[in-house]
Fold each of these.
Amino acid sequence: MRRFLIGSIAGFLLLFPFFYTGTAAAWHTQTHLAVARAAGYRQWYNAAAADITKIKAGSIESYNHFFNNPRNAGVTPEMVLTQADRYNMPSDTAGHLYGAIVGSLREYSASREKGRYAEYHLAFTAHYITDLSQPLHNIPYDEFNRENHQANDGVVDGEVLKNIDRIKRHMYPVKLRPGHFEKDLAAEIARVAEISRRLGLRLKKEGRIMTSREAYTQLGHSASLLRAVLQYHSP
């Protein structure tokens, strides 16, 4: 019996990567941490936690990290807000990254209003906002996407924590107005998502992965939006 269990576990571990083929982690760990640091997130070391969560939460968490965009439609603020109600919804297999940003911030605000410790919700937000700039998490998960996903995730991962300034060079002001926060947030999410989607389509057309320069430019979009969210929600 013991030998059977060991063999079964070993088999599961060999197959494990294939179970998550359609939900691969956007950007690797160091890249998530670097964006959080560039944005000034005090608890930047938690920025990869959402990927760790997928190991136990499975599809409840996995579909928060991408939008496969099966119709390859342009991203709009309305699309973003429609996805918000699907946050943590395992049946929405196309993914709902855009709504996850909104949904996690709603939970952050609700927890704060109840006097609860809300920081972990913000850590999820930081992760999702970084996922937003990964081009292949904004286009259909087709053969090109599958074959090139890991390479794009890790294009700057080995160096990025030593090059935070390269992200900062591509940062810019983002305005999220009091009284209009969610409307402005949805517009910014849609804008970054559309930039990322178009880059993803260009990569597919040209049959290549991102260059280092393209990657840092993309990370600058995420860091700019995350910084604005942090500034808005600063105590």
Note: Confidence is low (pLDDT under 50) at residues 1-23.
Amino acid sequence: MSAQAAPASGQPGLADVLARSDVWRGDALAQAPLPGVPTGFGELDTELPGGGWPRGGLVELLPERRGIGEMALLMPALALISAEELAWVVCVAPPLPPYAPAWAAAGVSLSRLLVTRAAGGDAAWACARALDADGVGALVAWLPAADATTLRRLQLLAEKSRTLIFLFRPAAAAQESSPAPLRIALAASRAAAGRLSLNLLKRRGGARAMPLELDLARPAPLPSVSHVVAGTAPTAAPARSLSQPAAA
């Protein structure tokens, strides 16, 4: 039977199954349900389903240590998101306050940046609130102690959302299972300063045998992404309430 032909029983054929975003050939990247948000690094875009950072799923980032350029990796996409009139960038539980001059120099609109210092269980709750809010284009969260239940909950919320979601966890978490469809271990490059080594631990598609090295100082120009997020911006009160625990 041809892969293009549907079985006489009325069940989907092989071509129909392979067209699904949650099914892929072992030697190829999966079809993404939504176009990816360009990362600013063309060589990384070609390695990701959808041609960029995925929406509707967790992106788990596992740096070997803090301050190796992990935020520079995200800045091109965050700049695109914040440039959209209705898109907020929400940071939950950053280990250090975001350095505003550096974010602004990278193109991030500070007027579209919300930060909450919630910790522990409140940080996971703040993430869930952000994913429920209209107009949130990107969520960046530091959840070092997140357990499997928390990750599964956030992944389910992500699947209902168009939000770009980055979760920072310790490098040791690479040994744990995770529902995140994209997991990347980050390390400082040994080849040259200003470069970052990315080990794609998990993605929807064939594995990459060797780490990918990026020059963080040379991001590519990015197009507009006016289609990234739909909805209206959260009002001031809900935005401020992200740092407050849920009522009992």
Note: The chain has a mean pLDDT of 80.
